[in-house]
Amino acid sequence: MSFELLTSSGYARRGTLTTKTSKIQTPVFMPVGTYGTVKGLTPDQLHDIGFEIILGNAFHLFQRPGLETIKKFSGLHKFMGWNKSILTDSGGFQIWSLKELRKISEEGVEFKSPLDGSKIFMSPEDSINTQLILNSDIVMAFDECTNYPSSLNEAEESMNLTHRWTKRSVDYFNKNKNGHLLFGIVQGGMHNELRLKSLEFMNSMKLDGIALGGLSVGETKEEKTKVLKFLAPHLQIDKPHYVMGIGTPEEIVEGVRYGIDMFDCVMPTRNARNGFLYTSKGILKIRNSEHKNSTKPIDENCDSYTNRNFSRAYLHHLDKCNEILASTLMSIHNLSYFYKLMSDIRKSLEENKFEEFLDSFYDMRSLNKPKI
């Protein structure tokens, strides 16, 4: 298991991340499979697009189907029929998203189950143990996802709790790691001094990778970019960098620009199910009446299965009829767009043409490239 940096352009990097299951080309986008499935798609369809890693959620899989079921399959890979890498979220995001259903203590978090109201307690040790039973290739340390907005004192208190939980996560993981990789999560809200302090702490933990958390919780794109720009020169060169929950094409491109190697987001599949399709020129809304009789593909610059075989009119028709196939075909398209975006970024880095890629990317959307 290793990360190899192949080339770079400014802070942007091209590399490979090797896990116990597969080799991942970076920068990489990871489709989200919260419950052990990327909604509407089979593992074969994900393979055909080209994905090498997906994301699952330890908290939700702990509830359903439960660890006893997963143990019978020796982990999530065999349970869901996926033979490439899996990264699992620790449950830290649920501490933020289920704030009305949880109580935080030094020991961990007590949740009221969103399914049946029963009590669930998760400590850092429980989170790591759950992820090891899931047989995740990349395990995330337990953290508290800091609220937005947060005062300096609130963000520091939250960050310090994350640091204490990270230390416990590392101690438990090191006794049981068996080929898995462990990433720590940098917190600190929108406060640069705290972000740097948190990054320095995570570096001291000798982790396999560094993630940036708390950047999809309501802040503006400008605030998000400022954090990435500030941290870029301080990120360890020999470790993969992962920003959690970020997923518009513009955010991904700017993330790569500031040294990020890994991304995940539910947007491609969620937007597909709601008729919002990504194209090289921006979002296409398939539900608009103008597409009812259109013989055009979604995007002439995309070679996805959906794009090669089906018209806008057909997808408009399926969506209007609430056919399940609409969600599948449009999810294939959106994920294919994201896969191609990452492939194009990697190619531009290999050819030392990343700045030209940025110019073309923003020109196609009639947007101004943000200044560094």
Automatic annotation (TrEMBL):
It holds the Pfam family TGT. One of its GO terms (molecular function) is metal ion binding. The active site is at 89 (proton acceptor), 264 (nucleophile). Its EC number is 2.4.2.29. It catalyses: 7-aminomethyl-7-carbaguanine + guanosine(34) in tRNA = 7-aminomethyl-7-carbaguanosine(34) in tRNA + guanine. GO terms for cellular component: cytosol. It is an enzyme of class 2 (transferase). Pathway: tRNA modification; tRNA-queuosine biosynthesis. Signal peptide: none annotated. Substrate binds at residues 89-93, 143, 187, 214. InterPro entries: ArchSynthase1/Queuine_TRR, TGT, TGT-like_sf, tRNA_ribo_trans-like. Gene3D superfamilies: Queuine tRNA-ribosyltransferase-like. Residues 10-363 form the tRNA-guanine(15) transglycosylase-like domain. Keywords: Glycosyltransferase, Metal-binding, Queuosine biosynthesis, Transferase, tRNA processing. Residues 245-251, 269-273 are annotated as: RNA binding. One of its GO terms (biological process) is tRNA queuosine(34) biosynthetic process. Belongs to the queuine tRNA-ribosyltransferase family. Catalyzes the base-exchange of a guanine (G) residue with the queuine precursor 7-aminomethyl-7-deazaguanine (PreQ1) at position 34 (anticodon wobble position) in tRNAs with GU(N) anticodons (tRNA-Asp, -Asn, -His and -Tyr). Catalysis occurs through a double-displacement mechanism. The nucleophile active site attacks the C1' of nucleotide 34 to detach the guanine base from the RNA, forming a covalent enzyme-RNA intermediate. The proton acceptor active site deprotonates the incoming PreQ1, allowing a nucleophilic attack on the C1' of the ribose to form the product. Homodimer. Within each dimer, one monomer is responsible for RNA recognition and catalysis, while the other monomer binds to the replacement base PreQ1. This is Queuine tRNA-ribosyltransferase. The gene is tgt.
